[in-house]
């Protein structure tokens, strides 16, 4: 099966039936009276086989078997230079089905019945494998989309798949099988399908996911190509016996009219603008030919989205009239108003009910493709403003320059700043210089069409001079250990603090708490720093710590109980310590040669017998022992 390129548009001839007959030897031919002039050029002259041509712009690609193996070649009409694209060494049908779009060439390559799709980028000289599973062939390309036939289930029910080079996403297009010869232009894919017992031409719209049957004939209709609104294909009717219907046909989707373009000779048609390339074996072997038609319809263009709005600012509810100003003759419109609602009218009116700043986008579509324009924060619907602001820096030495930034919501239109030093500003984001040290309260009043709001930040800006260290402590005397809370009383807005507590320890907190563990008289020093300078305050023998007498501890009174007290071996007994006098350590003797230092242990008696249990409890004051004679009885 052969690929029919994602290609292009034959010229609409006339309303009457047009038949262009080409002489087997002529390099130029003229159609019937009233038809366009067609000039034919032979592209290849090699004595081997050349077939499956495709064209885009000045580039023609085809499959060539001149060196005994199949490879992809390209001819540039502008430079008249021929280039070998692939370099495979063997296999008659291992390489073929080439297609071209811009700098990208795709083709099929594989061994036996295992074929894959490859792509070559002329701008980077890089080859990429597109497919990796199943049997894939007959690729076509347009823009960032590649389509191909795929028999990954090995059931000979070939379906069409599409791969997006940008999103890396693969999509199955058909599932009826078997399809053949896909071609793509814009959002349209054309292909042959024999679901009715013979091949007809079908078209699938990617944007609407709708399939349309183009032909309905008792004869096979194959090898479709597409350019804009024009679909080109080959009618195989009566090919073997000279049937009158055999030849190349075209359908214009805009008028729904079908025309016969050629009779015998042409095969594998592909089209771009007014250039048609095809295979012809008139000289006994297959060569590539190109016919140029004298009249050319301009290439359809993608639409370019654009719009305007009657209002972009106002208070809620705000009614806005949107006007489509797109070019490229779009046929569909999708508006997104930024508040969760959409419209499919060309020039809709929309009401914004809530305050906010809304981003609006418009997507327009035509037969070639789609385009989107987005206007960020385009519509501003306001309510009463809420004042808010920030400043940088908020502290420093005089003279200090501060940048104020409006953070208000509700789209205010007027601003009034009071900097706290007797000066004001009416700019949105003013810069102000504080000349004297001090702490300044700043106020911002904002206004819009709905109302007024004010924000005040008390003592927000601190302008410093050299600091003066000062501090207090509480308590300043007591028994050890003594916890003392120190409080910074310095002036001049220090930014750093260094305390020396007189016992070898330091702190860098503003208001630290410190524990004195030993008796003594301690001198305390505080050093404070700001952007202007440093100052130190020292209080000699400021903290007096006296010795504390530890309370006399009582000797503990050991006691305990256990459960169960009797049972068959092995017997698991839990002992619970109930001593008085706060013991800090324990020693258990279970009477069977085993010991424990846990407070309340669990012990297992393995052998039958009667056991005496002893607990010794100890603290700093001393120890005592509790003995329970024949306390545990274990039977066999």
UniProtKB/TrEMBL annotation:
Entry superkingdom: Archaea
Chain ranges of the PKD domain: 303-386, 385-468, 467-550, 556-625
Pfam families documented for this protein: PKD_4
PANTHER family per the UniProt record, alphabetical: PROTEIN TOLB, PROTEIN TOLB HOMOLOG
Record protein name field: Cell surface protein
């Amino acid at each position: 099966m052969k690929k029919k390129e994602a290609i292009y548009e034959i010229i609409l001839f006339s309303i009457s039936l047009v038949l262009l007959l080409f002489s087997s030897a002529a390099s130029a031919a003229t159609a019937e009276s009233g038809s366009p002039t067609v000039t034919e050029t032979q592209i290849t002259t090699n004595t081997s086989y050349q077939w499956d041509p495709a064209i885009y712009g000045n580039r023609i690609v085809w499959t060539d078997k001149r060196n005994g193996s199949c490879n992809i070649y390209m001819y540039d009409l502008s430079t008249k230079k021929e280039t070998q694209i692939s370099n495979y060494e063997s296999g008659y049908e291992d390489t073929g089905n080439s297609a071209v779009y811009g700098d990208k060439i795709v083709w099929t390559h594989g061994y036996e019945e295992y074929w894959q799709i490859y792509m070559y980028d002329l701008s980077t000289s890089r080859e990429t494998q597109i497919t990796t599973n199943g049997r894939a062939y007959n690729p076509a390309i347009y823009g960032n989309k590649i389509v191909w036939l795929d028999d990954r289930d090995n059931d000979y029910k070939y379906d069409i798949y599409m791969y997006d080079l940008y999103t890396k996403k693969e999509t199955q297009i058909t599932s009826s099988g078997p399809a053949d010869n896909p071609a793509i232009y814009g959002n349209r894919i054309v292909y042959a399908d024999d679901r009715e017992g013979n091949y007809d031409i079908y078209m699938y719209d990617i944007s609407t996911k709708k399939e349309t049957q183009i032909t309905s004939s008792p004869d096979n209709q194959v090898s479709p190509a597409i350019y804009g609104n024009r679909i080109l294909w080959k009618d195989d009717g009566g090919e073997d016996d000279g049937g009158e219907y055999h030849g190349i046909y075209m359908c214009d989707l805009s008028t729904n009219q079908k025309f016969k373009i050629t009779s015998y000779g042409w095969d594998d048609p592909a089209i771009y603008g007014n250039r048609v390339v095809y295979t012809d074996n008139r000289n006994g072997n297959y060569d590539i030919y190109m016919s140029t038609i004298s009249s050319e319809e301009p290439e359809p263009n993608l639409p370019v989205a654009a719009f305007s709005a009657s209002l972009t600012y106002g208070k809620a509810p705000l009614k806005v009239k949107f006007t489509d100003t797109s070019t490229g003759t779009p046929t569909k419109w999708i508006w997104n108003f930024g508040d969760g609602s959409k419209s499919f009218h060309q020039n809709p009116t929309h009401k914004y009910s809530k305050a906010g700043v809304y981003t609006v986008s418009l997507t327009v579509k035509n037969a070639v493709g789609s385009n989107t324009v987005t206007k960020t924060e385009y519509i501003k619907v306001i309510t009463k403003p809420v004042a808010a602001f920030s400043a940088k820096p908020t502290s420093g030495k005089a003279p200090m320059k501060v940048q104020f930034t409006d953070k208000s919501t509700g789209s205010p239109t007027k601003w009034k700043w009071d900097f706290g030093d007797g000066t004001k500003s009416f700019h949105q984001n003013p810069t102000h210089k504080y000349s004297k040290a001090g702490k300044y309260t700043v106020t911002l009043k904002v206004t819009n069409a709905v109302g007024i709001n004010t924000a005040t930040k008390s003592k927000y800006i601190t302008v410093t001079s050299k600091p003066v260290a000062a501090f207090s402590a509480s308590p300043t005397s007591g028994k050890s250990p003594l916890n003392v809370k120190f409080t910074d009383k310095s002036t001049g807005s220090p930014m750093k603090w260094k305390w020396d507590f007189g016992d070898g320890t330091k702190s860098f907190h503003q208001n630290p708490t410190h524990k004195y563990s030993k008796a003594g008289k301690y001198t305390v020093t505080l050093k404070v720093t700001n952007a202007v300078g440093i100052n130190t305050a020292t209080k000699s023998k400021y903290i007096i710590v006296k010795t504390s007498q530890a309370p006399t501890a009582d000797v503990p009174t050991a006691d305990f109980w256990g459960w169960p007290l009797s049972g068959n071996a092995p017997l698991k007994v839990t002992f619970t310590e109930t001593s008085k006098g706060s013991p800090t350590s324990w020693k258990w003797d279970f009477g069977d040669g085993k010991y424990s230092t846990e407070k309340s242990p669990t012990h297992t008696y393995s052998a039958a017998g009667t056991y005496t249990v002893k607990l010794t409890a100890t603290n700093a004051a001393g120890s005592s022992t509790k003995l329970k004679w024949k306390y545990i009885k274990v039977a066999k």
